[in-house]
Amino acid sequence: MNYNWNWGIFFQPNPMGTGTYLDMLLSGLVLTLKTGALAWIIALITGSIVGVMRTLPSKGANWFGFAYVEFFRNMPLLVQLFLWFFVLPELLPKAAGTWLKQLPNAPFWTAAIGIGFFMSARVAVQLQAGIGSLPRGQKMAATALGLTTVQGYRYVLLPMAFRIILPPLTSEFLNTIKNTAVAITIGLLELTGQARSMQEFSFQVFEAFTAATVLYLLVNAVVVTAMRFLERWVAIPGYITGK
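RE: above sequence
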């Protein structure tokens, strides 16, 4: 293999005139973090609502939660982003479709919302399992105290269920960040997209994707460390993982 390694490529000017190749990768990293953070907020809020609906005694709520999860979980993320970005504007009324097509930073908003809905189905399943693992006595105790269903979930069930599912939620958060790489298919130049641009301009393939790999690993280490601190902070002594 006669590959010509050149680690100094990162400090050479990029063709767009926006600084060096390293600046390109860092701007992609920032976009990755922004997209991942917004997608995670959408996933956590929507997934929590759907997850609670799947545990309610209402058949209508159960059916909606089931349909939502099966729709978003069983369709590939790549297909969903394609539908959101290319197909949805054509199905809407002309004015609304034109507005969507001309929306500033449309790939960013589409990626964040699409990934958020995709991951919300996984969060819903995790939360349903967390609520289901709680002893029945907790729900009965909430009712005996005179709490309404909403209050019972707000003050008793959800705080304990989220403590139980915090470790798997860490994995889902990391998956959300990694899934932003799929957004390159709709033109979002996040970290993977910028690494691909760098290798196309400079032909230094290995350096570009080695740098992207290192940056992804650094983000992974920061998220895991932060979530470990959060787990210890919210742990209740004597309950589950609490010490």
